[in-house]
Recover the amino acids of this structure.
């Protein structure tokens, strides 16, 4: 194949193993694309050019000796700049951490390294992962490859943009209230919010230790499944990472959806959709019907409350984490992040603990209302077409809560419940920007979500479309 | 009432958290907090006595089992 970017991640890995493409060639191609795209997208905070090329040469040398490092041998990736690598600055998208050099490497990076992957760059993100738009007051906004005037979504903004523009073959993000799913949906790629406890968070910048999750963004469901498989599982460095078995998710991917049930929420999740996004959502349901899935209505109760309780948990935990910096150098935060952190200081301790205590009750209710009846619930990621950077540039103003609230409304309750959710591209709105849906499943049921997502992807081929100019 | 709320927040922020808030910021914060407080108040009525946060993991395991 003359154009390497026509490969998906799994295809490229096979081509490198078969010596059709060298790791050096793949890395050099991606680095050149990252360089060329940077003025337009601003998706990179730091290039790791020399290290990446050295690692690519080492991968090629190993292959020449007959040694395959792992399933990602020589595959170029880049990650949100909040995954620590010993000796490399991790800015976390923040002025405060502009010079922060961690002394340890995140477990997820170690696992990707062990699988043979290359890291080409550290990617743009919302400041301290606390924002759903892709704005960044310190490093500049990341821009959507489908239209540079529009937001990428956040907080894993650079991950969404870089994967969508085919600059790299996959990227890690984090999701505390939608931060993987929102940029995945807005940039037209696949992203998974993993079950709470599925993936180690050791060496990943914390925002809210109760709700933070790590997950990949990739061009296809199969790519996303492979990356998730590699980074999942118990970790002695992170006692919150569960010991649930990690299946070979690629195995059941092509089994289709005949006989499976998908839930259409009659409450909350479809509120606020426009006529256009409703039509696209309905088309997804039609596609699943055609594929043999049964579509049933489900009525999740108390979702407004879950969303509010989730906001309380994030706000208080983030305020506790950032307390000293907010006291000592408040001027070094953007107005929006500082305002959001200040809110967290003002919830009483009892309210915060009640919000945590109620998680079990709401998860149980969601189980009875939804999970008992369907294999997955289908919801939009964003109920409206992708807005522009200017429309969402609200800083810490009075418009902040309403603007950000609309962007995170469909995602945040899922973090509160700790459930897995797979975001998929599902068409385009009239402004030329992608529309995305999410499949929400049982705890640790990522395999089923990948299978359901793959069935739709195979039928619709949205993932084959390229942003203009990329 | 709104003014009183803002002043309370300002004082509390200074004394309890060591954070200086302008009156304007405190008023904005009060507006942000109000709907969350109301939602939390509504939700807590359903809170049983013996519901520690770790119960979440047990419920997670319950719903993890098998498929639909």
């Amino acid at each position: 194949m003359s154009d390497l970017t026509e490969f998906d991640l799994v295809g490229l890995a096979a081509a490198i193993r078969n010596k059709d493409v060298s790791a050096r060639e793949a890395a050099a191609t991606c680095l050149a694309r990252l360089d060329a795209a940077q003025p337009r997208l601003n998706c990179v905070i730091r290039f790791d050019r020399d290290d990446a090329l050295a690692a690519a040469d080492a991968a090629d040398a190993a292959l020449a000796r007959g040694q395959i490092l792992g399933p990602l041998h020589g595959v170029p990736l880049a990650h949100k700049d909040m995954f620590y690598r010993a000796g490399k600055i991790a800015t976390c998208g923040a002025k405060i951490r502009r010079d922060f050099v961690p002394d340890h490497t995140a477990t997820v990076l170690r696992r990707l390294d062990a699988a043979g992957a290359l890291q080409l760059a550290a990617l743009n993100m919302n400041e301290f992962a606390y924002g759903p738009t892709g704005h960044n007051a310190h490093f500049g906004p990341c821009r959507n490859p489908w239209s540079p005037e529009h937001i990428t979504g956040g907080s894993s903004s650079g991950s969404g943009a870089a994967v969508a523009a085919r600059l790299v073959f996959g990227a890690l993000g984090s999701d505390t209230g939608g931060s993987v799913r929102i940029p995945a949906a807005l940039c037209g790629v696949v992203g998974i919010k993993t079950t709470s406890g599925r993936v180690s968070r050791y060496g990943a910048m914390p925002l809210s230790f109760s709700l933070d999750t790590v997950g990949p963004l990739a061009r296809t469901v199969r790519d996303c499944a492979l990356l998730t498989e590699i980074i999942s599982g118990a970790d002695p460095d992170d006692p919150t990472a569960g010991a649930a078995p990690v299946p070979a998710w690629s195995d059941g991917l092509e089994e289709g959806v005949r006989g499976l049930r998908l839930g259409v929420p009659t409450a909350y999740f479809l509120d606020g959709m426009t006529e256009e996004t409703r039509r696209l959502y309905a088309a997804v349901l039609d596609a699943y019907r055609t594929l043999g899935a049964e579509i049933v209505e489900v009525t999740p109760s108390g979702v407004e409350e879950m969303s509010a309780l989730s906001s309380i948990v994030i706000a208080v935990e983030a305020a506790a984490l950032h307390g000293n910096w907010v006291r000592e150098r408040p001027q070094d935060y953007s107005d929006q992040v500082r305002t959001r952190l200040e809110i967290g200081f003002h919830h009483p301790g009892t309210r915060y603990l009640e919000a945590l205590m109620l998680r079990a009750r709401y998860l149980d209710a969601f189980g009875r209302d939804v999970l008992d009846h369907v294999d997955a619930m289908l919801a939009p990621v964003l109920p409206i077409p992708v807005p522009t950077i200017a429309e969402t540039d609200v800083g810490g103003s009075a418009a902040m809560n309403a603007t950000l609230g609309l962007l995170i409304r469909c995602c945040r309750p899922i973090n509160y419940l700790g459930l897995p959710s797979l975001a998929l591209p599902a068409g385009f709105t009239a402004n030329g920007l992608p529309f995305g849906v999410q499949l929400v499943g049982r705890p640790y049921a990522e395999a089923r979500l990948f299978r359901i997502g793959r069935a739709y992807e195979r039928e619709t081929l949205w993932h084959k479309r390229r942003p203009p100019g990329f | 009432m709104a003014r009183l709320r803002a002043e309370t927040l300002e004082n509390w922020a200074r004394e309890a958290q060591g954070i200086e808030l302008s009156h304007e910021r405190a008023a904005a914060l009060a507006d942000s907090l109000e709907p969350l407080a109301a939602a939390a108040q509504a939700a807590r009525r359903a809170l049983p006595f013996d519901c520690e946060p770790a119960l979440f993991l047990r419920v997670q395991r319950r719903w993890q089992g098998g498929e639909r």
Observations:
- Chain B touches chain A through 40 residues (CB under 8 Å).
- DSSP finds three helices and no strands in chain B.
- The radius of gyration of chain B is 19 Å.
- The mean pLDDT of chain B is 84.
